[in-house]
Please model this.
Amino acid sequence: MTVRIGWLLLFTTMAGASAYGATITVAPSGGDHPTIAEAMEAAQPGDTVLVKKGTYPETVELADGVTLRGEDRDACIIAGPRRPAVVAENLGSGAVEDLTLRISPSVARLFARRKEYDAVLVRNSRMTVKGCIVHDGTLNGIGIYGRKSNVVVKACTCRSNRYWGILVIDRAKATIEENTCEKNGYTGIAAYGRGVRATVRKNTCRANEMSGIYFRFGATGLIEDNTCEQNKCHGIVVSDGSGPDVRRNTCKNNAEAGILVSSDATPSLDRNICDENMDGVFIQGKARPRAVTANTCSRNTHNGIVVMAGSTATVSDCICSENEKNGIIVEDKTTTGTVRRCRTMRNDLSGITGLNGATVLVEDNWCVDNTAAGIQGGRYRPTMTIRRNTCAHNGGSGVYMWKGVTGLVENNILVSNHVFGVELWDDPTDPVVRGNLIAANEQHGMSVRRGASSVFELNVIAFNGGAGIFYTPADDAPAQVCTSGGFNCFWENGGGDYVNCTPADSDLEADPMIFRNDDETWFLIEDSLCIGAGPDGENIGGLEVAEPDSAGEDETQPASGD
Model:
């Protein structure tokens, strides 16, 4: 029995040693081996090669199943002479941890214009790189190649590499998280090519010569919870058919766009913060993002969100405020944009703009306190449908359409703007203006100038400081019925209800009896003559009738600027 127990204990001890592996030390003196290469030759799967403090001028070829670990990442340095510091090829497992990895500075200078190497090269391997400092790669910091690669890069600092801090390419897969990638010659983190799938999470990419994160040529995956700041081009770029999910990132103080989507890319952009860049989000080059939802784009030196150059995008539930140009702009004749349920506030130009022939649907937005118009469109006949928006307290007009805009302005709340409720300017601007509340604007309710025209029907035009409708005809033109659709309700406009035009027979002159709830929704009081007064029994002004217990502040005479 004693012999059997002894053999059992010996077997258990040996099995435990095999399961957990041996630790092999490397040190200039006093270790198991003086070089890492010798230790790797001696190591077995499951072993750890522990590197003591010192600088090791060698290229380490990582053995399968072995962990290469530094005692102190700042003081344990592998400086690859002429080649990478670490090479991992065709490994089933392995790890590199807590080391400084670089190409020798003298070699980096010598080979800067000749052969280029990654400081860490991984090809067709499954492994982890953790807690390392990687710098001065003459190609990249960490290069991950091959369809059999599945690599985790975590808590590393990749800086001052010639091109990319971390590159995933050639159908490789990678999880890249909690790293700092800074001051690289191109981009902090890049995923290139079809078949590449990368999860890029909780990294900081700053002060790179181009962009923070770049997905290109069909790469997919996830870009999540990263901070991309102070890069010399963009914070995040998705281009050339790539389609990752891009969510909850902070992109700030980048020289160009916070997020750039270009060249047939199809990402989703969700809950990102893009502040203090040139543009917050810039979508161009026939890109077709699956969604642009709940992003915040503020204090950018140009626009909050741009959709242009043949792209198609739906922008919804975004906040765009305090930008030095527009909150959201959609432009170019092959561009189609939908802007829905966004809040555009305190922008130096307009809240939402459509230009240069774009096709734009603008609905259910809140456009308030912008320096110019709440919503504007112009140049080369864009087609705009502007529906169910609130445009209030803007420095210009609530809706401003010029130089050939066509389309529909319907069921909007256009109140307390500093110029007009609706401004139409230049032939052939000719939208249908239907079912709007146009009230308490400082000048006219609606201004029609320089040959513009409109079908104008079912609107409430009340309490404006100037005229209800002010029409500036072309030279020698007679007065006309510029309310050609009729069924409008006029009341107490300071400059009269009509100037230089004649009313339609179906127009009303009556108190519309309107009021506003605390949430800025407007209603008709139950005794209003506007209820059911349209040709098909619809309400004038596009307003619902108040329930007796839902009435808020009485706004039968709203004050300008309220």
Q: What stands out?
A: The first strand starts at residue 23 and ends at 26.
